[in-house]
Amino acid sequence: MNRFMTETRVPTTKEQAWLFLSDAKALTGMTTFPKVQTIGDTRTYAGNTIQLKVGVPPIFVQWDSIIPMVGKDAFVDVGVKVPFPFAAWCHTHRVEERQDGLYMIDDLIYKSYFPKWFVDAFILRPMFQQRKQAILHHFSK
Prior knowledge:
The chain is an alpha+beta fold and 141 residues long. The protein has three helices and seven strands; from the N terminus they run E-H-H-E-E-E-E-E-E-H. It has one domain: Alpha-D-Glucose-1,6-Bisphosphate, Chain A, domain 4 (2-Layer Sandwich).
């Protein structure tokens, strides 16, 4: 298994960050590549299955994740149906207060059919960098 982690310092309160983070609908606005569409109940609670369609229009593939755990300021989504090149996906989302500010943390454990260096450099790093910009834009309004 591989690990990818990223942090974003956000200019907001813990409550506002959690509110934003705990609804998968936020993905549709902050992820431009690949495009993300949500299906059904998008709220984060233990036992919920988050259903997404991801891709480049007009080609979309299904991505289903179950939320096995929601705790204080954190939740986990585990991919039960993930698109190529992923074979496994476990993503911990956290909101953490530190002395220098509030951080949204993405801690991802994944398995891929491609090497880690390739997935990190060409899929995850660009995707999460774009999300970071969208999150910062959202909280600067």
